[in-house]
Design goal:
6-stranded antiparallel beta sheet, alpha+beta, DUF1398, globular
Length: about 130
Amino acid sequence: MFTIEQIRQAHSKVQSGADFPAYITDLKALGITGYETWVKDGHTDYAGVDDQHAVSPAKYADLQVADNSDKALFKQHLQLHQQGHTDYPTFCRHCAEAGIEKWMVSIDQLTCTYYDKQGNQLLQEQIPQ
């Protein structure tokens, strides 16, 4: 059974988007099968094997997520983050500016999918191993 503290320890190793694949490997080792992160305040809902579930507290003060999404802008910000040019708080602010409401990670399928406020899927990426 995984705990929020174990997840925090795994996340503490993440300095930029370049560290994301290793983070996913750590979560999988804990028994986590997927999670949903909300840009508004950074809280995350984690799901695991045997119907395990845990919710992290908000990570920052509420951000205003743009009502209209800008996929091109988001892709630019994501690329910068994945190359290690931005930290997590900056990435979250960029997501809010580009109208990203949440992202969902499927550890089983190794995908990360980004959604806008209307529930539209803006981008789905394969997570490198």
